[in-house]
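Severity: low
Component: inverse-folding endpoint
Summary: output formatting inconsistent between runs
Steps to reproduce: submit the following structure tokens with default settings.
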């Protein structure tokens, strides 16, 4: 059944984040005719159009591609790299309808920076998704700009919820959220890599070790996704007193794993703030 989103949505740039949201929305039933996307190369545009059945414009083939897509949209998702977001916002400004909602999924680009690059009063919403959005299992934050009304925030929530769980947060918390959920999938993949490497050191065949680690991390994720699931309760259920898992967890604690994870997340958040400063925010 198609999801009930009446607006025309344009995706300017289809990198990992915008591409994930687009995939999630279409998988949830958004009609392809309600979507326009832009990418740089003509070959990528043709491939994306074949894959999803949506209209895809190439900015190298048509210098007005982004303006054309923006002019047709009720909602525009900006998904190019952070260094290019403000130039893109300035490029499309003349083509935007006054009520078109501009949603940015770029890390490090603040609402103030976006609003300064767009027409006065243009509704802006900042979002931070993560890559599981392509499976409809993402976490996507939304933060309101000065002209984003509660009704527009509800519209953004309805659109983005097709790609996962949507949480509304004040903008000052975006870097912290990004350090947990934005970068978080890489942490899980890194854990799977480390588990596989540990299996090889214990004598397992490399392919078998990778399979065991992959399926274990994926299976644990499914358990966490169950309604009412709690990570601490699930861990304790597997950790028998004086058993093998208890010994492993105790070793992780002795080696300072929780502090290592916290330090990594702090470094990610600090880097996001530094990139914002580098880009003029």
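Observed output (run 2 of 3):
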């Amino acid at each position: 059944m198609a999801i009930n989103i009446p607006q025309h949505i344009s995706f300017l740039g289809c990198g990992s984040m915008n591409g994930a949201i687009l995939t999630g929305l279409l998988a949830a039933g958004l009609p392809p005719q309600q979507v326009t996307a832009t990418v740089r190369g003509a070959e990528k545009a043709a491939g994306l159009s074949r894959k999803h059945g949506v209209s895809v414009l190439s900015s190298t083939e048509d210098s007005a591609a982004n303006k054309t897509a923006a002019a047709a949209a009720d909602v525009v998702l900006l998904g190019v790299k952070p260094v290019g977001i403000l130039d893109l916002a300035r490029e499309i400004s003349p083509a935007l309808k006054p009520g078109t909602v501009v949603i940015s999924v770029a890390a490090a680009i603040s609402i103030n920076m976006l609003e300064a690059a767009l027409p006065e009063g243009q509704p802006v919403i900042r979002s931070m998704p993560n890559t599981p959005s392509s499976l409809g299992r993402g976490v996507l934050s939304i933060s309101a700009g000065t002209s984003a009304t509660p009704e527009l925030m509800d519209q953004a929530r309805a659109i983005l919820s097709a790609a996962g769980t949507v949480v509304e947060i004040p903008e000052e918390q975006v870097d912290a959220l990004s350090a947990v959920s934005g970068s978080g999938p890489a942490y899980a993949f890194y854990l799977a890599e480390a588990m596989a490497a540990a299996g090889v050191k214990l004598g397992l065949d490399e392919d078998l070790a990778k399979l065991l680690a992959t399926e274990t991390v994926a299976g644990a994720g499914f358990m966490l996704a169950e309604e009412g699931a709690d990570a601490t309760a699930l861990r304790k259920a597997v950790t028998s007193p004086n058993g093998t898992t208890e010994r492993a967890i105790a070793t992780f604690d002795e080696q300072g794993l929780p502090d290592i994870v916290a330090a990594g997340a702090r470094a990610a958040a600090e880097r996001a703030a530094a990139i914002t400063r580098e880009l003029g925010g």
